[in-house]
Specification:
Oligomer: single chain
Helix content: 40-55%
Largest sheet: 7 strands, antiparallel
CATH class of the largest domain: Alpha Beta
Strand content: 5-15%
Structural class: alpha/beta
Distance between the termini: 42 Å
């Protein structure tokens, strides 16, 4: 079985390679290809990923490629982790929004629209190639952000393969809850519902015993998990539901904007500076022959990125900061799974019958009865040999239902606008979004984003 990663020259590629390497046996992978059209990034981050993978599973073929057709030929499983427009695109997204006193976070609101505008056409080009050259039974796992919108666009484009959208934020939070409760992950069941980066958690149970009230009363929930960004009062006002960390940008919007402005640089600018220095140093090394040293250089810069996540926006440090590791320590450290782990869980469960629960972005059908059947939602699913079955959610409180409905309407309009290159639909989409909610701002944003990203907007009218 062949697994292909599109965007294999990304900064997180060594982590993805590690996760795949430790789990290949679960789904019978015999060949892995990391593909990226950015040959410089592939030669650096891809080479690091290759080194990590081969240290763990030297018996499995691993290759790097800049040729999409070659990489996708006969592929059984495909993972997409693309950043179209690179760091420069992200910086434009953030700055344009901030110039209008709006949040430009890369997956949320105006910034999310701009990112989707670049991501969706690129993904669809790859989807057409997948249908031409990959296995007829190929399964696509989309990690490209904004994951929910991109996944919805893939499905609505008529793509004739199975596709799932995956984000590691819900899985990471559930893992944190298991640690807090001192139980194994497979003993903990949590219901997650909503949209990608707009979801809530409820009905936590350990071996079937309800533990939600216990969690909400535990001060550690607000200290040792992603719930640290929220107050107990907000939780009470949110019908005692636990919140996805990205809801910070909705419920603390003005604080996030003020903190970014006061910091003098956006998250994209911060990351771009770190990456420039990292690439400069790594570019001087012969990575395959200096793997340990190269990994140390890489990891020291990666820690700067990772440990500063949401620090400026929230004026808080990360829940858990990572420590410096050598290559050997990194390899020996237990694999947390991340988003690749969710993909492999799905494949293993369907192939082996082992039951498991995961959070996935997929078509709604009748799971959330207040949304359209073809809407893509983020939802807890039960995995088994019968396939993947979303957990039907009823009795969603009106407050959450209304916000989900509003953002979903934005997503429907934005996806339709991007698929057809329709400016008017794009303006209407941003008018609807609660973080914009203005015709004049929406019109200005669409024009400025189309101008900033004109290399990707040639088909717009």
């Amino acid at each position: 079985m062949k697994l292909t990663v599109l965007g294999g020259g990304g900064v997180r590629s060594p982590f993805l390679a590690k996760s795949i390497a430790y789990n290949t046996h679960r789904i019978g992978i015999t060949e892995v290809v990391f593909m990226d059209t950015d040959e410089r990034h592939l030669a650096i981050y891809g080479a690091l990923a290759q080194g990590v993978f081969q240290r763990i599973r030297g018996d499995i073929a691993f290759s790097l490629s800049s040729d999409p057709r070659q990489a996708l030929q006969g592929a059984d499983y495909i993972i997409t982790t693309l950043r179209i427009g690179g760091e420069e695109g992200r910086i434009h997204d953030e700055r344009i929004a901030l110039n209008h006193q709006l949040l430009g976070q890369e997956t949320t609101g105006a910034g999310g629209f701009a990112m989707a505008m670049r991501s969706i056409p690129a993904i669809l080009d790859y989807c057409r190639l997948i249908e031409q050259v990959s296995s007829p039974d190929a399964v696509l796992f989309n990690f490209t952000n904004p994951s929910g919108m991109v996944t919805e666009a893939i499905i609505k484009s008529g793509f004739q393969r199975r596709v799932y959208g995956i984000c590691d934020a819900p899985s990471e939070f559930i893992r944190e809850l298991a640690e807090l409760l001192d139980c194994r992950e497979d003993q903990l069941s949590v219901d997650c519902f909503g949209l990608n980066h707009l979801s809530w958690f409820r009905n936590a149970r350990v071996n079937g015993e309800p533990v939600t009230e216990r969690l909400l009363a535990d001060p550690r929930l607000y200290r040792d998990t992603c719930m640290k960004y929220f107050s107990p009062e907000l939780v009470a006002l949110s019908d005692n539901l636990m919140l996805n960390e990205y809801l910070y940008y909705y419920y603390y919007r003005e604080q996030a904007i003020a903190a970014i402005v006061a910091g003098g640089e956006t998250r994209g600018e911060q990351i771009a500076a770190i990456n420039r220095q990292m690439l400069s140093e790594l570019g001087e090394l012969d990575i395959p022959h200096q793997l340990e040293h190269a990994f140390s250089v890489y990891f020291s810069h990666y820690l700067q990125r990772e440990n500063s996540y949401m620090q400026r926006e929230s004026n808080q440090g990360k829940v858990k900061t990572r420590e410096m590791l050598t290559l050997q320590q990194f390899i020996e450290q237990p694999d947390s799974g991340g988003y690749a782990g969710v993909a492999i869980d799905i494949l293993e469960a369907v192939n082996s019958g082992r039951q498991k629960r995961v959070v996935v972005s997929m078509q709604n059908r009748d799971t959330l009865d207040f949304l359209h059947p073809d809407d893509v939602i983020e939802i807890s699913c039960e995995l088994s040999s019968a396939g993947i079955q979303p957990v039907k959610m009823r009795d969603i409180p009106d407050t959450q239902k209304n916000l989900i409905s509003q953002v979903k309407e934005y997503e429907r309009l934005a996806v339709a606008a991007i698929l057809t290159g329709n400016r008017q639909l794009a303006i209407k989409a941003l008018m609807v979004h609660p973080l914009v909610n203005s015709y004049s701002l929406a019109k200005t944003l669409v024009e400025e984003y189309l101008q900033a990203h004109r290399a990707y907007a040639g088909y717009w009218r």
